[in-house]
Amino acid sequence: MKLREAVEVAVLQVRAGDGLWPVSVVVPSPLLGTWLAREVFAERGHVGIDFVAVHELAWRIAMPALLAGGRARVPENADLALLLETIPGAIAVGGTPSYLRDAAETSGFAPAVLRTLVDLAGAGVTPDALEGAAAEAADPGRLRLLGRLARGYAARLDKAGLVDRADLLQAAAAALPAPTVGGVVLCALADPSAAERRFFEALSRHQPFACIAPPLPPAGAPRHAARRAFLNALTAPAVAASGEGGDACSALARLQERLFADAPGTVPSGGGELDASLTVLAAAGESMEAVEIARAIQALAVEGVAFDEIAVLLRQPSAYGPVLAAAFDRGGIDAYFLEGGPRLDPAARGLSLLLGLVDADLDRARVMEFVTGARLHFDNVLAPGTEISPSRWDRLSAEAGIVAGLDNWRRRLGQASQRRAEREYTEDRDLKLYESLGRLIERLASDLARLPSLGTWREMLAVTLDLLETWIVDGELTRDRLLRVLGPMADHAPSLNASRAAFLARVQEVLATQVYREGEFGEGRVFVGSISAARGMRFRAVFVPGLVERAFPTPVRPDPLLLDDERERLSPDLRTTRDGMEAERLLFLAAVRCAGERLVLSYPRFDTAGGRERIPSSFLLHAIEAALGRRVTAAQLAAFARPGETELGRPHPSGPATAIDRVERDLALVSAGARAAARHLAGVDTLVSRALEQAAAAWEPRWTVWEGALDAPTPEALARLRLADQDTSATRVQALAACPYRHFLATGLRLRRWEEPAREYRMLPVDYGSVFHEIVHRLFAGLAEKGALPPRPADVPRLASRVAELVDEELAQYAAENGVRNPALLDPARLRLRADVEGLLRDEARALAEDGFVPAEFEREFEGVEIPLGDGAAVRFHGRIDRLDTAKKGRGVRVVDYKTGGHFWKKDEQWKGGTELQLAVYNAAARALAPGRPVAEAIYYYSTEKGGYKRKGLPAEPEQDDTLQWVLSTLDAQAASGVFPAVADNCTYCDFQLVCGEGREARAARKVNDPRVAAFLKLREIP
User: What is the DSSP string of 640-693?
Assistant: First the structure.
């Protein structure tokens, strides 16, 4: 007899001829109650039948007496709050093992203790019994601590006027009979505790009563054997539910009848072969397993099976929920996820990001993730009419170099705003954004500081809810959940103190588990939920995924607070690991019995994340053996498992007919290779057509529009890309010479590499160079003021103290500007700077005495230095010269440019294929800065130990000027042609490697003979 029919028979039995007599049907889950309410007496309807949980029925019976005595049920999470109040005092007692003191500081300790105390109360084990058992225990301190916790927890319950579930059941049993309750039908019990059994026995004596339970397999654990005997004693044979499938001869029916039916370790004898009612599916991984389930559901729908007649029952909903939701979305399958779908409430995510900023020192990246990723109440935190742009705030704060810390935000925003104001733009929006961002950060810092480092749950919850209301849009659902879950902690444990970290960890846990449930159970949706919630229900088709070892059955571990042998000595009603393993068997049996016509058991063959092969579950072997009636080995299982349509390396079916979406269909069409089968993908202006065009362009012998050759460019469009009539710098021109495509991306498309400011724990080379330049500039400028240049070798020891002073000052400034919290981290750079600058002094004292030059000017800016390009056009350069030296004899000058890197010049190299122009530009700049005076040369001075204090000079000779003009004219002509080739001969430090992609060197090699770039490539021949 099916469960629905058994409930109907039981209801008629307890009504004893009175069709309106009230009946309470006790169900293990609200979902089963909802399902039964729809199914029983569906043809004629029913009244007076109420589906309730055990504790709800107990409360109805015991409520008058309990309320009269000032007692109430423990609200959700209030039990945890009361236990948290109990733990500190219990732990503080002498003799408590140190490992338990340490464990008590962890977030999982209190929930673990609560589960153990609930077990003890359900089995009727008292604190005195724990104290007595401690005398014989190997670890008496642990049992004594449990006794103190149980006694303290009970005292707090009594003080708060609350009763736990065990006391509620006892009070309800004492209050029987209860005329208002009517008849009672006990249905599909999962695992009753001793307290529940005593309550049921009292119900059976005092109320019209019937018990329904499916046939149970032989038990491997003593406690489950006792449960079976108890249920058999309560259950009338006329209302026993069976697990038979639709066809008594089918493989499914044999499985439901024989699974675990014989003694553990034996195999049912007699049977048949597998048929369409039972399918074993082996997919490559969990995500592909979910896709195969979606494919099978689509096939069932074609056969006429409605979505709400299908269920996917999960042992681990958190593991399979996201992949099933993704597969069902692809397949257009409406589903009801009982445990919630993987779609977070935006307000919950926003509050999580906000609380993540507590103790994060206003880290820029995290602040901007909150501001740009959450839906904020800007009207609450900023004045009306304030300029708001989260995306622009992100960019401006990054460009300002903000790392973290309120002082860093204030200083950097102020400096960036001042620099912007100096440009004197009218109606400058960025100035307004700097101001509004500053106000937002000040408000954020102020509000976050309100959360105390130590306080009661009530105080911290009130601040959290206020932050939610102030900052987050549409936070009502999140607020309700926080109040429901954490409110009892504040209401029933008002004196409970917690650290801010512990409170935030609990809040983040609540927010992370807040999900949406789309739709309602039924209403044309596939049911996806845990097996325990669906126990007793019936669907035409059932899928049970994840049947691999260590997933189903899951490893059952002993309770670390009360070990198995201690539990067995204390009470036969306490659960042990053997009971846990038995519960896993019963859970799988319950899933199997939910199937009416079809059952699909599936497993992933591989762990796709780690690449390891999975071991099929022993339950899967038991299922096949029960259906076949013979022994099946693990090696034989593969013969019964149907492979999915997809596999590793082929994420689509072999043919388009079974594809779950258009993506799979198109991939199947392409892989089939039939002529013109996928022509629709190559239509005009589709992603595929453009990808094909780009792939074909890579093999063309000419540069195409996919690789920097502009399509019909106009002179106006090229104006910014050319050198003619531009004010530029030598560095930008060298970038054009190194790679025209890089120049096009940076100057034409204005692409920039995103650089996130970060607190550095060492000085980067670029920063080292900047600090070095500033130290040398200040040192030589000071010596010039005193008339102490050029330095003499004898002056170097005396100047060492000044060098040390300048190094310390510049590093202090660097630490302040870059948020270096511990200046000692800069000590390696400090020592290196002192050594390099002193080495520069020694080397310059020698060199300046020999070459007859004296440093005269420092950090000299130049602009408007014009180099003709021919045809009346010219390019104008601006920049800064590190040092301008004058000759002791005569009127000659030269340029010195400090370099802190390594010397990389070969013998006789001057231009490096046209990519090194800066020295030639410096010679031209020197002529402009010292008109009428002869310019000797421009020098790269590798002025550190790393560079070996070497020099590389370019004489200011007419032939060098001609070469510069030729290089600039060639570069300008290349830009004017609209072809910007990705030459790919020096990509190591390019910011756009991802844009060019793999194979860029091979593509460039295929196009070297394109006549449009011949002149440009000729530059590479210049040594």
Answer: HEEEPS-BTTB-S-SSGGG-SSHHHHHHHHHHHT-TTTTGGGG-TT-HHHHHHH
CA nearest 328: which of 609, 608, 545?
A: 545
Other Cβ atoms closer than 10 A to 226: 15
In 3D space, the residue among 133, 77, 139, 132 whose CA is nearest the CA of residue 103 turns out to be 139
Closest among 787, 633, 714 to 976, alpha carbons compared: 714
H helices then E strands: how many in the chain?
41, 23
Q: Give me the DSSP letters along 397-408.
A: HHHTT--SSHHH
pLDDT tops 80 at residue 503 = yes
Residue found under tokens 């609350």? 162
Instruction: Say how far apart CA 377 and CA 474 lie, in whole Å.
Output: 9
If DSSP codes are grouped into helix, strand and coil, which group holds residue 207?
Answer: coil
772: nearest Cα among 939, 942, 886, 948: 942
User: Does residue 595 sit in helix, strand or coil?
Assistant: strand
The confidence score (pLDDT) of residue 245 equals 47
Q: Among 326-335, 485-494, 554-563, whose mean pLDDT is lowest?
A: 485-494
> What does each C-alpha distance from 428 to 433, 782, 898, 965 come to in angstroms?
9, 39, 37, 39
Q: Who contacts 303 (Cβ-Cβ below 8 Å, separation ≥6)?
A: none
Say if pTM beats, i.e. exceeds, 0.85: no
Characterize the bridge pairing of strands 950-955 and 935-942. Answer: antiparallel
Residue 520 three-state SS = coil
Three-state DSSP class for residue 730:
helix
Average of per-residue pLDDT across 774-778: 95
Q: Is 852 left (phi over 0), alpha (psi -120 to 50) or beta?
A: left
Closest to 340 in 3D by CA, of 546, 534, 478, 528:
528
Alpha helices in 422-492 (DSSP H): 429-448, 457-471, 476-492
Phi/psi for 726 (5° steps) reads: -110, 145
Which pair of tokens denotes residue 213? 């339970």
Residue 897 · residue 918 · CB < 8 Å: yes
Query: How many other C-beta atoms lie within 10 A of the C-beta of residue 665?
Result: 18
Cα distances (angstroms) measured from residue 276 to each of 257, 258, 313, 443, 660 = 17, 18, 19, 65, 21
Q: Which of 174, 215, 222, 225 is nearest to 195 (CA)?
A: 174
d(C-alpha 390, C-alpha 350), whole Å? 14
191: pLDDT confidence band, cut at 50, 70 and 90? confident
* Digit-coded pLDDT (tens) for 93-112: 988 889 999 998 887 888 99
Q: How far apart are CA 687 and CA 384, in angstroms?
A: 44
884: left (phi over 0), alpha (psi -120 to 50) or beta: beta
Whole-angstrom distance, CA of residue 835 vs CA of residue 819: 25
- Between helix 500-512 and helix 457-471 the angle, nearest 10°, is 50
Instruction: Tell the residue number behind the tokens 């020999």, with chain if given.
Output: 850
Q: What are phi and psi of 1019, to 5 degrees?
A: -60, -30
